[in-house]
Amino acid sequence: MADSAETVKKTVEQATTAAKATAEKAQAAGAQAFRETIDRSVAGLTEISSHGKKNLEAMVESATAAQRGAEALSQQAMAYSKKTLEQNLSAAQSLASARSVQELVELQTTFAKSAIETYLSEVTKMTDTLTASMKDSFKPINERVTASVERFQAAR
């Protein structure tokens, strides 16, 4: 019977040792899986943060381009207003010095034609400036959207 007790004792010790080894392996595997999950999470958060930073930079760049466009349009409008005022004063002086009704009509017609041509030229110039400004303003945002779409498609 002593042999049986001894055998049971050895069997229990072996089972305990095997259970401890299995538990240690499971604990190590669990710890490794936890570390890998945390590392992936940190990497994902870092990527999201980087993506957000790039988006913010694109918004700032876009706003800066829009501001430059607005300033250019404002300068053009001021220059046009000044030029128009000077032309109107000059035309008024010319009209006041007209010697006949026919000369007055000819001066008025010439002035009106010149004013319309100047206006159309200025509208074209401002439209070109506005178009360029819009393109410049949307370019950084479009680049970020394109990068995001490519990233999502690559992740599929």
| Gyration radius, rounded | 40 Å
Helix/strand-derived class? mainly alpha
Strand content: under 5%
Query: How confident overall, as mean pLDDT?
Result: 90
Total domains, how many? Answer: 1
| Outline type | rod-shaped
Distance between the termini: 67 Å
**Major beta sheet summary:** none
Low-confidence regions: none
Q: Counting H and I runs of at least 4 residues, what is the number of helices?
A: 2
N-to-C SSE series? HH
Say how many strands there are: 0
What helical percentage do the residues reach? over 70%
Model description:
The mean pLDDT is 90. The protein is mainly α. The chain has helices at residues 2-96, 101-155. It has one domain (2-155). It has 2 helices and no strands. Helix 1 (2-96) packs antiparallel against helix 2.
Short description, anyone?
This protein has 156 residues and is mainly alpha-helical. It has helices spanning 2-96, 101-155. The mean pLDDT is 90.
List the helices and strands and how they pair.
Blueprint: H1 2-96, H2 101-155
Helix pairs in contact: 1-2
Key words describing this protein structure:
156 residues, mainly alpha, 2 helices, 96% helix, 0% strand
